[in-house]
Amino acid sequence: MLVDTDVLVWLTRGHHGAASRLKQIGDWRISAITYMELAQGCRDKSELERVKKALGGGGAQITLVSDRVCERAMRLIDQYALGGGLQLGDAMIAATALELGLPLLTANVKHFGGIEGLIVERFNPAHDPL
Length: 130
Prior knowledge:
There is one protein chain. The longest helix has 18 residues, at about 65-85. The protein has about 130 residues and is an alpha/beta fold. The chain contains seven helices and five strands. It has a three-stranded parallel sheet with strand order 1-4-5. Strands 2-3 form a two-stranded parallel sheet. It has a single domain (about 1-120), classed as 3-Layer(aba) Sandwich (Rossmann fold), CATH 3.40.50. Strand 4 (about 105), helix 7 (about 110) and strand 5 form a beta-alpha-beta unit.
């Protein structure tokens, strides 16, 4: 399963539901885009180290962006940006999931809604235990 940035933000905030869901998955991946979004959101080096530790300790595998992912993301932007508001980061993450043939775990289902072939699994922080 590919995990979206928002789920990991919940994890770094100490949300037990996010931690529990990731443990249920076992082996999971993130896009390099997700790593960069998380790192960019850090306020200082110690927070960045906590993010890295959480990813490493959680067993996350980081998938680098390939030419195929970029090409697919460009097609997704062409198809979904104007009508659906698909943004660059989400296009790259969706393209990664599609290229790997993995479902995407996200709380931001609306960001990925309607993307043909993308299997989206919803993480709902309001319903999963805090």
